[in-house]
Amino acid sequence: MCKDIVKLASRSCLLTLLLLGFASAQAQEMQPEPAIQAPLADESLLLDVIEYNDSGYVAVGARGHVLLSEDGRQWKQAGNVPLQATLTRATHFGRRLWAVGHDASIISSMDGGETWFIQYRDPEGDDLAPPEAQGPLLDVLFLNPNEGIAIGAYGRYMTTDDGGIHWNPGRIADRVASEAIDWEAMARRQGGYETLPEDFEMPGGSSLLDMLDKGCYQYNECHLNAILRLSDGRLMIAAERGYGFRSEDDGKTWEAFRFPYPGSMFGLVKRGGCVIAFGLRGHIQRSCDFGTTWEAIETGSEQTLMGGDVDAQGRVFLVGAGATRITIGPNGEIESEADLLGSDYAAVVVGGDEMILVGDNGVRHD
After folding, report:
1. Which residues touch 28 (CB under 8 Å, ≥6 apart)?
2. What is the SS3 assignment for 153-173?
3. How far apart are CA 251 and CA 233, in angstroms?
4. pLDDT digit string, tens, across residues 88-99
5. Phi, psi of 104 (to 5 degrees)
């Protein structure tokens, strides 16, 4: 499998839930139980937070918890969530909300997040052929009120054209122009083999150069971690093992590309005409030509980064393990802070002077 998960000592809890805890207990239940009202839900594990129509915030996380807030300070739990699966990501288009998570679950709300209903759920992986059909969805994006894309573990790539009434299960490999990545062509386009470590081991124990000699490498099982919409039909996906994918036709077809760092990227944000990718061991990479070339942004931190946002001034805020916070200013200035004994942050949203962070200890407002 395309795995590059590393041991992160005592800070492994959140990454384990994000990357290893795919086969949840709910997968054994054919009929899901609704989320339980929990007085301390805002102090439990939360994995994403979004701003909702400039009028409030929505956060999602473990046990099907959905939290709502008008100001980011006072939170209440949604009154009706029909499952207890861990929710990993949320999005909205207009007033319509969606959230995705474990058991390949997709839920939606039409009343501002108070009441949710299940659009899709595949706990046993029946809708995809092996290998490893089970697994969570890790991100979701809607292009308009009808057309949406959900991505997740083991290359799962799902689409809808009716607002989620029907979802079409598949894999990213079905959408890429070829069924294998031409590493040699990528290396030539992106600056030569020197960016590819010769001792970098591929699945099965083969060295990278051995795989290059064979001309290609299958990526059907790689986890798709984050999807970003740019403009003019351009989309980008960050994945495992240095994989990335880009589309110029709103996801109808995809092209594979390679990040210089051959490890997982967990998030993408856009600033101006550039994309900033971030992920494992604090690696941050920037591309201003839609992923054709990338440059590393050095911060001195090796803490894994899992969430990011950009404010109106063009400042990039990234958060991750060990209470890590990294700010990249409009002119490239970098501020970094961490507390190895602090919480792991999974996501951040910034609006005006407000910063909302969520992670393994719930919500924090700064």
Report:
1. 123
2. HHHEEEEECCCCCCCECCEHH
3. 8
4. 999 999 999 999
5. 50, 40
